[in-house]
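seq as requested:
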Amino acid sequence: MSNPYLSQIERGLRKPSAEVLQQLSKALRVSAETLYVKAGILDPTDHPTTTVETAVLSDLAITERQKRVLIDVYQSFVKENASVQENAAVKEPVQDGATPSTTENTTENEEGE
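struct tokens:
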């Protein structure tokens, strides 16, 4: 990759290909996803960078592949937790701080007595 080509990318005269962004991400030690957002290929609201990702990417003790795997695992946990929270918010709240199981048991005990 030549310096004039990089200069054209920096000035917005050329749009880099995914392959070029991948090469740049390795050279700069940042995620390709971050460069895709910076290049306008990905929407930044769909791909926010967290401090966890920044810390992993700046760690010199692990390989680029290990960094990508760690970030992928982290992002999957974040998505899983978000869907669990969404599902919990959709369910009807239980009154008086009781859990659903204690509410059911209380109802069964009251009916049986």
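The mean pLDDT is 75.
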